[in-house]
Amino acid sequence: MVVVSVLFFTLLFGMVGFRFSAGVLILYFIPFYLLLSSAALGNSEKIVFGLFLSFVFIPSIAYWAGFVMPFRLAIGLAFILVLALALFLRFRKQAVSKEMQA
Amino acid sequence: MKVNRNIVEIIVLLAVYLLGLYMWTLPLHNNPYPFGDVDASSHFAIGDLMAGQDKSVLYVPFYLQSRYGGQNDFKEGALWYAPQYWTNTGIVQLLGGDRTLPVFLLVAIFSSAILLTSYFLARQLFGFLPAILSTFLLIFSARDFMIYLWGQWPQSLSFAYTPLVLYAFYQYTAHYLDKKEKPIYLYLMALFLAAQLFFHPQGLIASAAALIVYTIVLAVRHKRLPFSLKQASLAGLLFLGVCILLAPFNFGEFVVELFFSDKGGGAPSEGSKFMRLFWWYQGIKNDPGIPSFYFTYNLTHGSLNGGLLSWWTLPLLLIGLFVLFSRRNEKDWVYLSWLAAFYFLTRLVVFGIGNRDIRMFAFEAHVFYPIIAIGLLAIPSFFPVGEKHKAYLKYGLVVLFLLLAVFVNGKSAWNTLESQQQSVGRVNPSQYEAAVWIKDNIPMESTIYDFGTLGFQNYAAKVKWLNVLSQHNFVLEDRYLNQTEYVLVDYTDALNLGDTSYRDAIQQWESQRFDPSQAIYNKNNIRVYRVVST
Q1: Which of A84, A87, B137, B279 sits most deeply, having the most CB atoms within 10 A of its CB?
Q2: Interface of A with B in 45-84 (CB under 8 A)
Q3: ∠B250-A75-B154 over CA atoms, to 5°?
Q4: Residues of chain B above pLDDT 90, percent
Q5: What is the pLDDT of residues B435-456, one digit of tens each?
Q6: Does the distance separating the beta carbons of A39 and B92 come in below 8 Å?
Q7: Does the predicted interface ipTM exceed a cut of 0.90?
Q8: E strands within B337-491?
Q9: How many Å apart are CA A32 and CA A54, to the nearest integer?
Q10: Is the overall model pTM greater than 0.90, yes or no?
Q11: In chain A, which among 6-25 make CB contacts under 8 A with chain B?
């Protein structure tokens, strides 16, 4: 699905389309999908909710960070922060789950 | 070989969504230059500035002061909308490596986001077939693609969150009333409502109205509140916290405008006041901002060309409403509540509340189209035949639905969107190049006087585009000519229109004032002169 979407934009809009679609999928889809993977939600809910939450929170982090650092770096920070939180929650959930099994 | 149903659904959804994106990006095929009327250029401007200067923007830049300075009643000079939509456009400029095309691709995705969220809600409540049929029809919704072309972009994204709000609340209340609480849905709903506020408060108001109606319905059916007060309070605090933390100046502005401002309201004339409650489109015609087709069912939900077939969805809508009202289970009440909210919000002026009721028509198709699909699929149940024949009838109707959607609605939508590819209303390459030259070569605080660009006399959309692309202040009335430092003379639209009288008028005006050899920029039928202001 991801490949088809990127291919779609690339065929229609060339390199700009490729960069746009790949960038959007990486920045706006992956971090929040992983963040919600720890939540008690269905997979389709995680996909849709994650995407629409990212439209708000990724730019929010980038915007406010963009006052104290270059905007480009702020975008990277937004990605890293959300990803880090997602991984932290994921590992914490696995650790709790292991403790309960033990 | 057993086919995985989920995978089939995903493939079909992907195909429908990509078809939608293909259509909605038609204006961009072979033309990456900006388009969009009204406020489109301003929605491009802030993200463009952020990406260009590599820094966030808090205040309205000087070259937009004449249009948007002073609109934020809470913090003087601050941005007039919350920054999130514009920040996204700035982000994709950098991701895509181009100033305009990635922005417009994102705008197309955001403006058509209702395709995804409407599918999601309808799929979860009513199943795959109603969801995919209504989503397919939504691709061709004139309500939605015209707003996209007009440039009311943040509003479209805001309305797209309403299905998610309704779904989250439906899930929360269903679990709560079943004594299997899942407050996560309520907290997610709070976040979606905050998102709507950031993108455009109208979306938040639409959702709030639907939530109020749905809550009342559930309370009456179950004879108790369908939510926990403690959890609702926490959700409310979450909403407030997110709003204050992420968009404090715009949240403050929203509160000021809602509770302390006298900007809207006023009752209409006595004669028309109550009749508006009984006419769906209220006899609205000749509105100064919106064309009359917008208030005509068959032109908006059928084909802009009219004709008998353009009414084809109306019987299905009525059948769908009959089905929902007959069943009245809680899934049906989600859509009935949304419809009730739409009815009241498009008639607020009858009660002397606000003056945005016409703008609320924007989400009509979002409510109607799933009901239309439900109506279609309910038809076989009215016939006293066996299940096998009902199945044949159902799939036959689906084929008919798709054919009508494509050849009536789709044809109209395609023609309109495709016509934008080479529209003279868009910035052309010569104008874009001149604007970029101005941005890079003329001192920032200088003022430009435009003569010749289409609509220059009325500060029309194209001049606004030159204003934001050049990041310079443009003035348009002759009385300001002696206050400007630079004059732009633009022949391109007159030449593209083949209008010799328009071209001659520009030539006469230019020759009375300037010697072309003195132009500091002279390319592609556009000249820029430096003048000494008095």
Answers
A1: B137
A2: 48-49, 51-53, 55-60, 62-67, 70-72, 74-75
A3: 40
A4: 72
A5: 999 999 999 889 999 999 998 8
A6: no
A7: yes
A8: 447-451, 473-475, 486-490
A9: 6
A10: yes
A11: 8-9, 12-13, 15-17, 19-20, 23-24
